Sequence to fold (430 residues):
Amino acid sequence: MCKVIQAVPRRSSGLILWLILWLVVVKPGGVTACPIHCVCYPSPMTVSCQSQNLTIVPSDVPFDSQRVFLQNNRITQLRADSFGFETQVLWLYGNNITWIEAGAFSNLRVLEELDLGDNPSLRHLEGGAFRGLEKLQSLHMHRCRLAALPHDLFHKLYSLQFLYLQENQLNILQDDLFSDLVNLSHLFLHGNRIRVLSENVFRGLVNLDRLLIHDNRIRQVHRKSFRDLGRLTILYLFNNSLAELPGQAMRDVQGIQFLRLNGNPWSCDCEAQPLWEWFRTARISSSEVVCTSPSQRRGQDLRFLRELDFALCPVPDPGSPVGTTTTTFSSKTRWWFSKTMKTFPKTPFDSAPAKYEMSDAEAALPKLDPEEYWANYGNEDASIRCFEPECPPGFDNSAFYSSSTRTNVPSFLHLASLSVVAVSLHLVFG
Fold:
C-alpha cells in the first residue's frame, strides 16, 4: 500500500522562511542594546552613564539616542570620532576634559543642548571646536578656567540662545566674538577677569535679552559697546571697577528694565553728567549708584544729584571713546563758584530724592549774561566778574567796566607815549 505524502505548498514554505529570517535577523536588530555600566530608557531614548568612572565616551551608544548623560566621569579628551551616534541633549559636565579637537561634535547635527561645565582642566579651546552645531540652542562652559576664546569659536552657531561662560578666567573679549549669535537671548559672563568692553564686543547680538557681566574687573566701557543691544531688558554691571559709564552707551539700550550698577567706585564729577541725565528720563528698576568721589559727594547717590551740581561742567567731547570731557573752566570761575556755594543753606534735595526744583537760595544767585558766560567758556586766561563782597583780595574787575571807562584807556596810553618821546628828545638835544 503506497503512502501518500502531502507536499507543503510552496507559498507556505516561503512564509515560514521569511518568518525565520525576521526572528533571526530583523527582530534582534530592532532591539536597542544598552552600553555596559549604563541605564537606558525608551520614549525618548535616553542613555544614562553618569558617575561610572568612564575615561572615554562609550562606543556602543545607540545611534538613535535622544538624550545622552555622561556627566561626573573621568573623560579627558573629545575627538572627531568620539561620537558615533546622534542625540539632541549631551551632558559632559564634571569630567576631566583637557582637550577638544576641532570638529569633535561635527557628527552631532541635531544636537540642541551641550553641557561642558565644571571641567576645570579644559582651559583652552581650539577654533572650530563647535563646528557643525548649527542647531545648538544652549551651550554651557561655566567653571572651566578658560582664559581666552578663539575668535571663530561661535562661528555659524545661528540657533544658539543661551550661552554660559561665567566663573572662568577670561581677561578679554575679542571684537566680533559673538557676531554670528543673532538669536542669542541670554549671555552669562559674570565672575571673570574682564577689564574693558570695546566698541564691537557685542556686535551682532540684536536679540539679546539678558547680559550678566557683574563680578569682573571692568574699568572702561566704550560709548558704543551696547549699540546692537536694543532689545536688552536686564543688565548687571555691579561689583566691577567702573568710575564712569557713558550716557551714550545707556541710551542705546532703550528697552532696559532692570539695571544693577552698585559696587563700583563711581566718580560723580563732570564725567558723570551724561549718566545722570540718562537716569532723569529712564523708567527702570535700578540699584543705587553711590559716589566715591569727589569727597564732597562721597556717599551720595548719583541718580539724585541736583542740576546745580553740574552747573559748571563743560560739554562732553564727542570724540572720546568713553564720553569724557576735555575742556575746563577758568580758575577764577571755579574759585567764585566754590566760594559762593559754601554760603548756601542745605535744602531737602541734599538728602531726599525728588524732582529738581530751584530753591530760594539758588534763585537769589547773581545771573551771568549768556554772552559773557560763553565768551569765557573753556578759557583759562579769561576773567569773569565776581560779585561783591565775594571778590578775593586783589581781584581785577576792570575787564567789566563800562564802555565809557574803557574808552579812556587808549587816551591814557597815548599821553604816556608822548611823554616818553618828549623826555627822550630833551636828553638828546640837551
The longest strand covers residues 39-41. The CA atoms of residues 8 and 14 lie 10 Å apart. The first helix runs from residue 10 to 30.
